[in-house]
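Incident log, structure service

09:12 report received: a user says their structure output differs between two submissions of the same chain.
09:20 pulled the input from the user's history:
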Amino acid sequence: MENKKNSVWLSIQFIISLIFSFITLKLNFLQFGEKIFGIWILMISFWGVSNIIDLGFGTAIIKYVAVADRNKDQDEINKIASTGYLFFLLVGFIILTLGIAVGHLIYFGNENLIPGSYKAIFWLVFLLLGCSFYLQYITLFFRSLLEGLNNFVITSKLTLFFNSLILLSVAIVYLNNLNIKTLALFFLISSFFSFSIYFFVLKRKYRHIKIKIRYSDFSFAKKMLGFSFNVQIAAIIGALIDPTIKYIIGTFSSTSFISYYEVARKFAVAISGLFNTAFKTLLPRTSILSNNKEYRNYILEEGIKFAKFGIIYSGFFYGISSILIVFIINLWFGFKESVIIFFLLSLAESINNVGFVIYTFFIGIGKGIYLIFIQTTNILLVSICLITGLQIFHTYLGLIGYFFAVLINNLLMIYLLKRQTEIKLSHYLVQINAQKLFYLFSSILFVIFFNYIFRINIYILVTMLSVLSFIIFKKELKKYFHQFKGLMTDFKSS
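09:34 re-ran on a clean worker, output below:
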């Protein structure tokens, strides 16, 4: 029941945060315009990558705290917490310093991305966002500690608090017609309040956890790095994908295209993000697996179940509900380009919803070499295929290259899963209903190309997509609907 409650709260947090993000996105577009806001998105994406660079300590803290908590070893928890806190303080400062230098080199030397007239303004914005990153980076330690204790309810509530502050900041800037530098300052202030609340909650609710320098242990830091360093290298490479896509779009097209892409990405990634967030509880559960027999049993039971649900979930949101999403994009943002970009991205995210289970499994069992290989291949494929697509089509349709890159990479993951667990690929694909994912792909591609080639009204095409998807997934949706009603009943009674 605790895992179900955690999943429900993670979902609530994600959905409300998503609504907030749509409002802030709209207000920022109205306030700053497509070009300036496109540059802002580049800045945010850069420091977002930096926030991932914890050398795997976040993942390691979750794993080792989960094990120590299960064993009721308080001394071990204190050692993990103290070592982790010191690590995040020191490494965060190093990353901040290096990030300022690297960001200046990459972005401020490219006139296509940041014209000379904007450099002075955005240099200050970049520095303020860097300081905001540092506070969020330390906050990541507190969140990892709480998630290791399997308390996703608190982290969900505190994430909502931070996102509420961001929404308030954007609203104040918009209503008072303030500049982008003020917005960056408000981001820094919001990060400070979020950090402070995490610190206060941990001290008050978990008074038995002692975070002191004398409890930190260098040998224990080496142990955690040994588990997670390869995992973190993979996470860093994976985090580079989004800013790489935006960099390629900005270089080969325009920063305005980045704005259209960001709107579509918000919707497409929000759907897959809800799935990933709701099932973050899989990581502590896979972290305690210890041998090949347990690996195989987990995949044949939990793995197949969640991968199958990922396909049905994609069919519901990217297929059946697509008409609603298209309506919202047109009504709220008014960018026709973003509609087709959404469908292009939904192809890739549908695959990622299936691959998420496998990737989380590899993280949990510490297969860092697999993860590095997967993410390195991914970023190379994305770069090559996206540039090729943009060169061929010279329009947003070039993002079809991103879809093919993700498809190839997820097939690679399934192959690695076979090597690790010795499951039969044919059995795995049949059990997760992979053929229904193929039907969904075909339907979405039909919408994209018939709109692009014949200029058929998008609402006619999307209505057909919704009907087809309902026919494809009707049986499975009925089953999961009854399960969801039972879950909500249990949640309310708790």
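09:41 both user submissions now match this output. Likely a transient worker issue. Closing.
09:42 reviewer note: The radius of gyration is 22 Å. Residues 242-488 form one domain.
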